[in-house]
Amino acid sequence: MDQLPLFHRIAGQPVLVLGEGDAADAKARLVEEAGGTVVTELGPGVRLAFVALAEGAEEAASRLREAGLLVNVVDRPDLCDFTVPAIIDRSPVVVAVGTGGASASLSKALKERLDLLLPSALGAMARAIRDARAPVAATHADVPARRAFWSALLAPGAALDPFGPAPDPAAAIIDALAGDGEPRDSVDEIRVGPEGADALTLRELRLLASADLVVHAPGMPLPVLALIRRDAARHTGETMPEGATGRIVILKLDEG
After folding, report:
1. For the purposes of burial, counting CB atoms within 10 Å of the CB of 63, is it exposed (0-12), middle (13-18) or buried (19 or more)?
2. What is the tally of structural domains in the chain?
3. pLDDT over 70 at 256, yes or no
């Protein structure tokens, strides 16, 4: 690991942004979206600085670093104390993708793929889990028991599978506390047309990412098979194996 990823709380804190133009404006928006206050001069309480200067960036970074600030210089990873990742925001869930400054384009491409897979309701799920800490602690007195409870509830195919549908996470937690949180069996069919993986919907991508078993027709394109959850069981054919249980997805070829 070339860098230590951290989430820095800046709500209500001043953050220095030096420079003008699109790059500086983008950093200012990023600070404001995280609840920080953009300042243009070094002052009390400033701990982070973004430098977006066409000239004099190295000198400015050195001066700010000597003053005790952590510095990010736009498009100059060699001058950065920290880099800004590509961000997927499902607040309070935040996923950050970084390459240590090697390639912002690669970070962006990975972020776009992950953004398709992560349900928009992840934030609501996280808030429901946070709000349920007290009742879960009341019924599961020790840490190992609480960890086991959440692990079972968040497992692939379970009621709070992060990649699956969870329209009412609070109710799912209540059901689990009452002993009704077992994963339910399901069978979904996906028809893959001539465009292959590129034509799959968000729902279909999430189904593949959360399936326990995928039954696929012979000749299914490899890019489609690559989207299946890594530890999911696979069966080549047109129908499910007898006695199959769990979350099952059947992939069929549609020649259109």
Report:
1. middle
2. 3
3. no
Q: Name the 3-class secondary structure at 63.
A: helix
Is it true that the peptide bond before 92 is cis, omega within 30 degrees of 0?
A: yes
195 and 238 within one domain: yes
The answer to whether residues 40 and 111 belong to one domain is yes
| 138, 214: one domain | no
Residues 6+ apart with CB under 8 A from 158: 152, 164, 181, 182, 183
Residue 149 belongs to domain spanning? 134-177
* Position with higher pLDDT, 155 vs 197: 197
User: What is the reported pTM?
Assistant: 0.67
The CATH number given to whatever domain includes residue 55 is 3.40.50
Residues 140-168, buried b or exposed e (16+ Cβ, 10 A)?
beeeeeeeebbeebeebbbbbbbbbebee
**Listed residue (213, 131, 210, 216) closest to 173, CA to CA:** 131
